[in-house]
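2024-03-11 09:14:02 DEBUG pipeline.ingest accepted 1 chain
2024-03-11 09:14:02 DEBUG pipeline.ingest length=283
2024-03-11 09:14:03 DEBUG pipeline.predict start
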Amino acid sequence: MTGRQRDRRRGRTGAAVVAAAAVAGVGLGAGGCAGGDAVAEDSRGGDAVALLHRAADRLVEAGSSKARTSMEMAAGGTRVTIRGAGVYDYRRRLGRLRVLLPQDPAGAAGGRTVTELLAPGALFMKNRGAGVPPDKWVRVDTRTLSDGNLVTGGATDPFAAAEVLRGTRTATYLGRTEVAGTGVRHYRGTADLGDAARRASDGNAASLRAAAKGFATAAVPFDVYLDDQGRVRKVRHRFSFVNGQRKSPVAVASTTLLYEFGAPARVRLPDDEDIYAGRIAEQ
């Protein structure tokens, strides 16, 4: 077993807690955080639910894509937006994002850029700050996070975002439109995280179960746009979770945009010696 394989199996719960506070809660503490059958399945509610249950499978068939993410958090009078961009390999369940953190609670641009590697059950962050050397990675076991890493990294894992749709309970077809010049079908509905976890791939099942228990509610409203191959082009989830520093829930709107399917997505996870094992300062 290689050092990297050993590390993938080993969780660092302490790092997970710190990462959740520093990345997902950035600014909030200061404020108070297919196939061709897709063409035919459109307007009938039952067909819409079944179609969305299979949306993640269509991404696996596509292989890879580029991705852009946006996460808006609101608590009290504080609102921040965290943006990211990168690539994702849906067959290997590996992704790489560069996430721009806001400079201040007002969401002004120009903050630190964190490189994130997404893997089944793990989140790796570089340029983490909080006393971590700039050339070292911090590893978070996402199965220990109360949000299942749907919020913690400041970006929702693109494949996890699609797998949330496996828990779709209700969905309405709202008609055709365009996303970035591509014709798509717009659906609006609600997913249940517990149902999603039961239908998810092995890599996301535990994380989604954690989110179902840790969020303020397991019900997740969404808007999703599928192309004529049934692939997710854009999905917007609305989460609600309880920040440890606040009694009231934090509202989170997470948007994932997928494009250029088939784009190269080479992601290499860090070796043991590249992962920081020291104490992480609280922020």
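2024-03-11 09:14:41 DEBUG pipeline.report Confidence is low (pLDDT under 50) at residues 1-45.
2024-03-11 09:14:41 DEBUG pipeline.predict end
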